[in-house]
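Structure representation.

___
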Amino acid sequence: MSNNNFDADHLDTLDRDLGRLANLEAATAFASRPMVGLGISFVFVVLASLLATVFFGQSNNTFIVIIAAGIGAYMALNIGANDVANNMGPAVGANALSMGAAIAIAAVFESMGALLAGGDVVSTIAKGIIAPESMQTSAIFIWAMLAALLSAALWVNLATWVGAPVSTTHSVVGGVMGAGIAAAGFAAVNWPTMSKIAASWVISPVLGGAIAAGFLWFIKSRIVYQDDKISAAKRWVPVLVGIMGGAFSTYLAMKGLKKIIKIDLSTALTVGLVLGIIIWLVMIPVIRKQAEGLENRNKSLKVLFGIPLVVSAALLSFAHGANDVANAVGPLAAIVQASQSGDFTADVSIPLWVMVIGAMGISFGLFLFGPKLIRMVGGQITKLNPMRAYCVALSAAITVIVASWLGLPVSSTHIAVGGVFGVGFFREWDASRRMKRARVEANLPELSSDERSRRKLVRRSHFLTIIAAWVITVPAAAILSAALFLVVSTIAG
C-alpha cells in the first residue's frame, strides 16, 4: 500500500472517529433536554426494578427489594450527574477533551472500575456509622437503609440542580446516620467515626488545593518563567509525567484493585516508585519528539500536557468507579442481604447485578445530566489550561496516598474541587505578586480595592455555594433520612 493510500485511510478513520464523537455530543445535547432526560431516567429505574425481580426471585421481601433497586438506580444516576464531573471537568475545561469524548471515556472507565475492581465485599454500610445490633429487627434495618439511600439520592439530585459538586459518600453517611438516630436513638451513632468524616470536610480540599498549587508553582518556576521554555519542558515534563504515573500506580494499587489483590501501602508505594521511574525514562524521548518545532511560548507547552491529562482523567474515573460505586450501592446490597437471610450484622457481599445497576446508572446519569457540572468544575470556578488541570488531577491521586499514609479520611469530590480552588487562588496570588513588583519597578501607584476585586481569578459566588453545600451535606441528608424513616416505618407499621 502506498503512503498516500495509507494517509487517506488514516484520515478516513480519524474522520469517522471524530464523527462518532460529534454524534455523541449531539445526542448528549438532545438527551439533556429536561423531559427527554427524565423520560430515559424513568425507564432505567423501571428496568433496574425489573432486574431485581429476575435475580432476587420470589420471597416475602421481594417488593421491598424491587423498590430498593429502583432507588439504587436513582442514586447511581445522581452519582453520574454530580460526582463524575470532578474527574472530567478539568480536562474538558482545559480543552484537552471535548464534552463528548469526556463522557465516552468516563462511562467506559467508571463501569470498568465498578465491575472489574469494585469491592466485592464491604463492611455493612451501617457498621462504623451506627451499630447494626442497635436495630431491633431486620425489618427496621431494611427501612433505615431504604430511607438512607433515598435521602442521599434526593440530596445529590438537589445539589446537582443547584450546581454544587458534593460527596455522594458523605450523603450516604448522613443518610445512614439520620435513619439510625430515628430508629435507635443518638447512642447508636459511632461519634468518633462521624468526627473523622467531619474533619475530612477541611482536610480533603485543603490538602488537595495545597498539592495542586505546589505543582503549579513548580511548573511556573521551572518551565513557564524560563527564558528557554521548550528546553526546560524537555527536562521537566518527563519527570512530572513520571510522578503522575507513579502516583496513579500507587493509587490504583491501593484503591482500585482491591477486588483482584490486597496490597498494603508500603508495597503500593514500591510499585508506584518503580513504575514512575520506568514511565519517566520512556517519556524522555517521547517529549523530546513532541517538542520538535514548537515555538518558545506558553501556548506550545499545553501540547505536552494534553495526553497525560487525558490519561489521568481516565484513571481517576476507573478508581472512582472501583471505590465510590460500592459505597453508593452499599445500602441496596445491605437490603438485599437482610431480605434474603435476615442477618443484618454481618459483612455485606455486593451481588453482581447490584454493581451492574450502579455502573450503568452512573453512565446514564453522566450522559443525561453530567455536562452541567462538568462545565462548572472545568470552567466556571476558575479558568483552566492543560498545565493547571494536570496539577488538579495529580493532586487527587497524591492526596489520597498521603491521607492513607496519615490515616485521614478524605473525599475524592472535595479533593478534586479543592485542587481547582488551589490552582485558582495560587494564580491570583502569583499574578498579584508579579503585578505589584512590576508597578513598584515602574514607580506606579497601587491598584484600588475595586480594581483588585475585578482581577480575582476565582469566582467567589461558586466558592461560597460549594463550601456551603459541603458543610450541610451530612446534616441535610441525615434530617431528610430521619423524616423518611419515620414516614416509611409509620406506613409499614
Observations:
- The two ends are 76 Å apart (CA to CA).
- The mean pLDDT is 83.
- Residues 32-492 form one domain.
